[in-house]
Recover the amino acids of this structure.
């Protein structure tokens, strides 16, 4: 039995509210159970210096957690004077994932920055940030197309992410914090709407895993991603 009472292949309730930030070109608040992440997309008429003159656009991300996103207060990283390694790793992951669904030639020499701020954390924050970040990105590109600042749609496909793991000896979909902290194997799966793999992060947290177990988790992830893509599609319709 999962702590939440969910079935092994059951996602937490997912909701995506768009247009939650007035000034951002694209924004949404994604809720996956008790994990809530605010995602915004900001369009900049420039690219990083290494892309100047290439005709290619860029999508990058920043990620952070509010001090009371968890059950105890975490000091703001700005107050500490540096970002934690976990923060840097997650924001790089978000940027890589979202770029996989973007035609950077169609975007042109523009940069879209995706800001993901965790308001409340209960496991799977990076997955929620990627899934919600895509919605903010899609809304921003829709606005750019309407304004004719770009002429070709740069979004090639949906990108979404979900966690899966082995908890209590059973493969489970969409881990919450209680499951994540006790899972023998933990994985994050990032896929496109067409089911293509973007990135897979898997680790043996308390027990090694077999190829068959990994395949079972991927099958669960594919079903979860299909639900998330449907939520994305409804949000941006």
């Amino acid at each position: 039995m999962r702590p939440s009472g969910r079935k092994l292949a059951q996602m937490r309730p997912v909701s995506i509210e768009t247009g939650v930030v007035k000034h951002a070109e694209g924004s949404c608040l994604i809720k996956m159970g008790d994990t809530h992440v605010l995602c915004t997309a900001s369009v900049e008429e420039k690219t990083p210096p290494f892309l100047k003159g290439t005709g290619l656009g860029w999508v990058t991300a920043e990620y952070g957690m509010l001090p009371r996103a968890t059950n105890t207060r975490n000091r703001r990283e700005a107050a500490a004077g540096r970002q934690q390694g976990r923060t840097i790793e997650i924001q790089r992951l978000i940027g890589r994932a979202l770029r996989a669904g973007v035609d950077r030639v169609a975007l042109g020499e523009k940069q879209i920055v995706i800001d993901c701020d965790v308001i409340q954390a209960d496991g799977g924050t990076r997955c929620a940030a990627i899934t919600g970040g895509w919605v903010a990105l899609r809304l921003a590109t829709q606005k750019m197309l309407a304004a004719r600042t770009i002429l070709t749609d740069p979004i090639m496909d949906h990108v979404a992410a979900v966690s899966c793991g082995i908890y209590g000896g059973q493969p489970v979909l969409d881990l919450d914090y209680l499951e994540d902290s006790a899972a023998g194997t933990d994985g994050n799966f990032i896929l496109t709407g067409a089911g293509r793999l973007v990135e897979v992060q898997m680790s043996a947290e308390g027990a090694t895993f077999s190829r068959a177990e990994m395949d079972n988790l991927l099958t669960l992830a594919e079903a979860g991603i299909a639900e998330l893509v449907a939520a994305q599609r409804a949000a941006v319709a």
